[in-house]
């Protein structure tokens, strides 16, 4: 599937999304509050795919479910990018920044093999 | 803030995340099912930020809330990338692919200014 | 609609739900973890109804949406009851107990007209 | 814990909740849209409890987690009741009504032991 990074795009994703919304007169619907709700609704469609499987089963999906999952991931990324761009945040840069924080919060030797929250250690 | 794309990274985000989890012995927790749940929990922390504001208010956040939002966006992107990589999906590529589908599903002249779902037109 | 309390039932809701699942061999799917996910998926279907409306608009729903909402509320209540009963909790009793805690956490004279969390006062 | 039905209350839960909000001037925050978001945020706190456990582990909770779960169930029931009452729906009555629909949608002999959605049979 499409694990390779996005092909070199003529424009950033956030700009393409803004133009898409503008061409459809959808900007008024796209308040940050509504985008957050839409993000949540799309994530639930991912949850639904894994709802009744157990952890091991969830590692293998039938082809049609894989396709559905890829589309839902696309939807989540779309709303995440739209919401983030309203506050001048790039999702991937935010992920790297959070990773740097997590390196400090969860020292490998201290948390090895445990799933507790950092404030429970 | 960090609207600029991520600085050229020495490795892909998904690889850095896999190494981070491996160093902490967290792979066993990271079934697709659990990653989907974690994604959902992080999105709810974004929802919480906008919970009581109305649409207009949601466009302006106090600096501490902006910082919190950027961190939550980072968390969402982290879990989305981890989940997606299990199925060889790149979130940004998936977003572009979904955009292409949406162009067909929602022709601009037909949906202008309406928020209905495509199957309600 | 059905604002009136449930008609006197021959059995408690949680018992009817347990029998329904047993007759269909669904108990193995109904781990607390899976029930929590199902609960979350159903709540997202409620979110979806209010996704693009603003606060004022959300107070009026077309009849078909009202019917859809009532069904989703039923679904949420079903999964909430099933999950709660695994831990000997009755949802309505838990709500009354939480109300008593909230009375102390949010003294009326202190929080009047404010939506902050209790630890932000 | 509190599996027993709520003790006979002097007033319905929905009325107690309405008075609680009114005494705090919170009605303006409590649009159906906002209540739906609050419901979703509380459900995510339940999800978080079961996030990293597997299905079997999720059946046993440490006492502090059990207490936390009971409180979150209370919160979910509170927001569900508030939202439902805006549309004259009683959650428990809605659950019984949905059960009746489910009896038809999922005939026991047809779905035994399967977790598919009804439209996949």
Q: Could you explain the architecture of this structure?
A:
- Four copies of one chain form a homotetramer.
- Chain A is mainly α.
- Chain A has two domains: 13-19 and 28-89, MazG-like (Helix Hairpins, Orthogonal Bundle); 91-121, no CATH class.
- Helix content of chain A is 60%, strand content 0%.
- Chain A contains five helices and no strands.
- Chain A has helices spanning 13-23, 32-50, 63-86, 91-105, 108-111.
- In chain A, helix 1 (13-23) crosses helix 3 and helix 2 packs antiparallel against helix 3.
- Chains A and B meet through helix 1, helix 2, helix 3 and helix 4 of A and helix 1, helix 2, helix 3 and helix 4 of B.
Please give a handful of descriptors for the protein shown.
homotetramer; 121 residues; mainly alpha; Helix Hairpins; 2 domains; 5 helices; 60% helix
Describe the structure in brief:
Four copies of one chain form a homotetramer. Chain A is mostly helical and 121 residues long.
Describe the secondary-structure layout.
Four copies of one chain form a homotetramer.
Chain A: H1 13-23, H2 32-50, H3 63-86, H4 91-105, H5 108-111
Helix pairs in contact in A: 1-3, 2-3
Strand content of chain A: under 5%
Radius of gyration of chain A: 18 Å
Q: Please give the domain count of chain A.
A: 2
In angstroms, what separates the terminal alpha carbons of chain A?
39 Å
How many DSSP H or I helices of chain A?
5
Query: What is the CATH class of the largest domain in chain A?
Result: Mainly Alpha
């Amino acid at each position: 599937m499409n694990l390779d990074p996005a092909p070199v795009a003529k424009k950033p994703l956030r700009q393409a999304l803004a133009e898409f919304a503008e061409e459809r007169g959808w900007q008024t619907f796209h308040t940050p509050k509504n985008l957050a709700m839409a993000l949540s609704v799309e994530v639930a469609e991912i949850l639904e795919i894994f709802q009744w499987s157990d952890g091991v089963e969830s590692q293998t999906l039938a082809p049609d479910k894989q396709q559905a999952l890829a589309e839902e991931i696309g939807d989540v990324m779309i709303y995440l990018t739209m919401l983030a761009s309203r506050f001048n945040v790039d999702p991937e840069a935010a992920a790297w920044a959070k990773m740097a924080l997590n390196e400090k919060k969860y020292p490998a030797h201290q948390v090895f093999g445990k799933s507790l929250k950092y404030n429970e250690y």
